[in-house]
Amino acid sequence: MRRRIAPLVAVAALAAVLLAGCSLGAGDSSEPAPGTGTSNGAPVEGGAPADDEAVTDQGVAAPQDRAVVTTGYMSITVDDPIAGASDAAALANGAGGRVDSRTETPGTDTQPASASLVLRIPADELDGVIDDLRKLGEVNSVSLNASDVTQQQQDLDARITALTASVNRLLALLDEADTTADLIAIESELSTRQAELDSLTQQRDWLADQVDYSTITVDLITEDVAPSAVPGDFWSGLVAGWNALLGFLSWIAVALGVLLPWIGALLVVAGIITAIVVLATRRNRHPAA
User: What is the pTM (predicted TM-score) of this model?
Assistant: First the structure.
């Protein structure tokens, strides 16, 4: 009798776990009713502060630390962008950060030198690093953007906690399963829940990295040393006009070089057609004579 009841108990427990898992998404995203005890910022019974508030020594509720993702951009004019890129990377590493990407373009006769870096700076060291970056040269522009992701982080934590409990319950059921059908059903659901848990954990880790390390894109440029395109006096205008004329003639020569083979081919075809027409005309006149 006990053997017959055991599979029924396992199936009932599995069904309960499945129903609980299906309600995770809806339960986590729903907003609590006003005045009820929650862990998402609403007051709990008895007037106690919510989880995202802390009670100070004076009994005043203070907001908990927020999770903020900070991104920024800086453009700096320096004498040597390549050397400046090395200095900027050293500043990031010295503050405990890192360089995610670095691009350097040496100067040539046709373009000035430049460099671009994506720096990851610890959030609490960002202001100091920006001040040090300003000392590299003349700052052209600075922009910072802060995004509050506290709610997103709390939602991920809640979903991960619920999924972890669900996975643990499925593992316990897996040890108690007596039939092959129960084993297959539990293992299938366990695989799905574990994959969801791993995905959410990766999202939380990525979000935590974005919060802990601010992302700053730094462009280092130098003044363009190319001569001005607008003539400044009569002689420079004369030189510019002469150069333009030479450029035009050079373009005409190139165009003629491209068209010459086609013109020759067309002349040959036209000559053949003309010869055929002349021969046909002579033959028509000869019988008439």
Answer: 0.54
